[in-house]
Amino acid sequence: MKKQSMIHHSKFWEMHFIQNATKQRIDWEIKAALTSDDKEALLYSIKAWQLGETSEGKHLLAAATRYANKTNDHHYIEPVKLFIKEEQKHGANLGKYIDMLGEQRTKKDWGDTLFRKIRYFNKSMELWTITVIIVESAAQVFYEALQNASDCKLLKSICNDILLDESHHIKFQNERMYIIFNNKRFYNKAISLVLYSCLFFGTIHAVWYAHKKAFIKGGVNKKEFMRRMYHKFFKSMQFLHANHSAIDFKEQEQDQSLLKKVAF
Ligand SMILES: [Fe+2]
Ligand SMILES: [Fe+2]
């Protein structure tokens, strides 16, 4: 019989983020080196993603706090805070890279402004979570392309660090989405799936048109971008419909004492 995969509890994720934050994977002694061709194709996108990764996360945290109080999963707030911090680390690293190139960081980008507006009005944890899953999936495809788009070793190692973090972010969000989705009735699930698909369809087109130069430079054409995005989205949707084992709260209490040892 196929082994059921586990939905991890909030304390598990808190420990994961605490431990991951101790890992230093980038060698800042390496020189930032982009050719003028690389800059022409990549700089706009590097700056735009840098800005996007720098968000304060206030609205996400407010939605997570409301949700945690409503569902009595008070431990959920902490991993969300650490998740935001990890995203800000990506922003800080990309910012440092832009500075090392002697370029100016951007303060405004239409994609970022659009997402900030959506974030402002978004009070639902469900909408937050599905949006983050879609954006994280696009981020994975983007940073993989960026990693292959130049010979700059420093940029490659920054992308590698982000990609290692992002694969856990998707798991973290998929598991929360599973919990939210499976508390819905059958017909509400069907309506939600239509809405998720519309959001997915709109977002992937916005990401492609904003960053196609960088994707193409990294060897990812439109067809390949769409294929990878659909694959990731369907994997997340499949995860929502699988039969995962329930959260083990006993384990959560054990991990809580372990967490104290890690943190102090
Ligand atoms: Fe990120
Ligand atoms: Fe992320």
Largest sheet: none
Helix content: over 70%
In angstroms, what separates the terminal alpha carbons?
A: 41 Å
Give the count of helical stretches: 10
* The number of domains: 1
- E-strand count: 0
Which distinct ligands sit in these coordinates? fe (ii) ion
Radius of gyration: 19 Å
Shape: globular
Mean pLDDT: 90
Topology:
Blueprint: H1 10-21, H2 36-52, H3 58-71, H4 77-100, H5 110-121, H6 125-148, H7 153-181, H8 186-217, H9 222-241, H10 249-263
Helix pairs in contact: 1-4, 1-10, 2-4, 2-8, 4-7, 6-7, 6-8, 6-9, 7-9, 8-9
One fe (ii) ion binds next to helix 4 and helix 7.
Condensed summary:
With 264 residues, the chain is mainly alpha-helical. Helices cover 75% and strands 0% of the residues.
Explain what this protein looks like in three dimensions.
The chain is mostly helical and 264 residues long. Helix content is 75%, strand content 0%. It is built from ten helices and no strands. The mean pLDDT is 90. One fe (ii) ion is lined by residues 87, 136, 139, 166, 169. One fe (ii) ion (FE2) is lined by residues 53, 87, 90, 139, 162, 166.
Descriptive terms for the model:
mainly alpha; 264 residues; 75% helix; binds fe (ii) ion; globular; Ribonucleotide Reductase, subunit A
